[in-house]
Design brief:
The chain is built from four helices and two strands; from the N terminus they run αββααα. It has 105 residues and is an alpha+beta fold. It is elongated, with a radius of gyration of 25 Å.
Length: 105
């Protein structure tokens, strides 16, 4: 395989098949440790999911934790409170249960 005078390379059919690259696929190209890496968007997404799952040190679902963080941020923005206000104090035995969000009750 060679690079033409316009910098183009034709990926041989057997390599495309082995890599799961179909005609018309959009591919991403980057350099990793001096190697040129070509992958489809689906392959990139799958790789990122695997890497995040392997690095995950939390408990439960990454999606559930992210959704909870987003909800807390939205409540904080809507009510003008900070994320620290969302967490109960460790020495508060009620865990913040005495904060009634509906003062009319």
């Amino acid at each position: 395989m060679s690079v033409n005078n316009q910098g183009r390379v034709t990926i041989p059919a057997h390599v495309r098949r082995a890599a799961g690259i179909e005609p018309g696929d959009s591919v991403l190209i980057h350099v990793e440790d001096g190697r040129v890496v070509i992958e489809t968007r689906a392959q990139l997404a799958a790789r990122v999911r695997r890497e995040v799952a392997a690095a995950w040190e939390g408990t439960g679902s990454v999606v559930d934790e992210l959704a909870a963080e987003r909800r807390a941020e939205a409540r904080a923005e809507a009510g003008g409170i900070t994320a620290a206000d969302e967490r109960p104090d460790a020495d508060d035995a009620t865990g913040g249960a005495d904060d009634d969000p509906d003062p009319e009750r």
